[in-house]
Amino acid sequence: MKIVVLKFGGTSVGTIERIKKVSEIVKNYVKKRYSVIVVCSAMSGSTNELIKKSKEISNNFSDAEYDVLVSSGEQVSCSLIAGRLVHLGVKSRSWTAWQVPIFTENKHKFSRINQINKSNLWNYLKSGGVPIVTGFQGVNRNERITTIGRGGSDSTAIMLAKFFKADKCIIFTDVEGIFTTDPNKLKSAKKIKVISYEEMLEMASLGAKVMQPESIQDARLNKINIEVKSSFKKKSGTLITKRKNIINNKIITGISSTQSDAKVTLVGVKDKPGIAASIFKPLSKNSINVDMVVQNISANGRETDLTFTIKNEDLNKTKKIVNENKDINFKKLIFDRNVSKISIIGVGMVTTPGVTFRMFQALANQKINIQVISTSEIKISVLVDKKNIKKAISALHKEFKLDR
Ligand code: ADP
Ligand code: ASP
Ligand code: MG
To answer: What's the domain count of the chain?
Structure first.
């Protein structure tokens, strides 16, 4: 049996017309004698609408009920595809996660898939059927519905490919593949033919919404090659694979940016050993993820200014926690929601000196001020004023010759 997992994202099933088109794509794989497992997201916009409803009910909506609510969008799109395939004469039916079942960890909202029972889907595949499986959702050992984080249908597809040892895992989306930067933000962005898991993971974690970061971790761990392509145009896409499979002569592979960061500065913090730990401990206890950090010692050596970034949505909680923290003393708390993190990513920078300088110079030439810097082996990130995002991406794209 040649198994292929086909995943369709929200825009790909955003309208009835699109669902009809997607069903044709599925039918074509059946004609090519593949055993097809389809994974589908909710119709575009519908998950956001459900989340909005939960917020209208309560600003402290139960996590378990959140999962029941927001996973419902996937049930709609899956049944519509299955219904269309039946209409086209293809044997098909929808499967929600508990029916498969797809098991996750116990936690809600950001759970992870850890087991998929194969027998039900397997028997259905063997009978020539095309199962249409709801992405994004699972069931935990307490028999409660869970979800696996925004964009999680990507993970569902990759985990199904793992458990069924699929020949192919194809992610159909609304762009032609992975680009050097978001093609909807920069016209000169170029499609990347092949990209390593490591680079894709950085690009996704640093803001490229095209793949859920956790799904790339799953793919890397399980050595699953992923093809990302358009459900709108019949064109070759991008292959995400092992670094070994790639001959790449570019220093930088891609550029990502974030939209939802906030910067927090504690001015005049009494400088003593353990002060940073006292600030960050209660934040981490409250699941607030601190990203970039910079600390400046004042001229008198007794005080320090400490700046860090968090997700915008965590800002109010962070202000409260910092203000109520009795273990620290500071003069003023300043925050800024109008910041964006721009990152350049590429395995090529490991062996190429001078990349940091070129990045900073290119931004300086555009008079863009760098507020915070962080680096890892294969990426450099800088925090800039949000109004400079476009200018910065465009300058860096040119500097590292990504538009060629
Ligand atoms: P889907 O609904 O198919 O899961 P998403 O909206 O989650 O699709 O992801 C696709 C979007 O990701 C594109 O429309 C594009 O704007 C955005 N994107 C951001 N960075 C990139 C990139 N480097 N390459 C391709 N698309 C990107
Ligand atoms: N529908 C879910 C979301 O909007 C899952 C997904 O699209 O992959 O996040
Ligand atoms: Mg997505």
So the answer is: 2
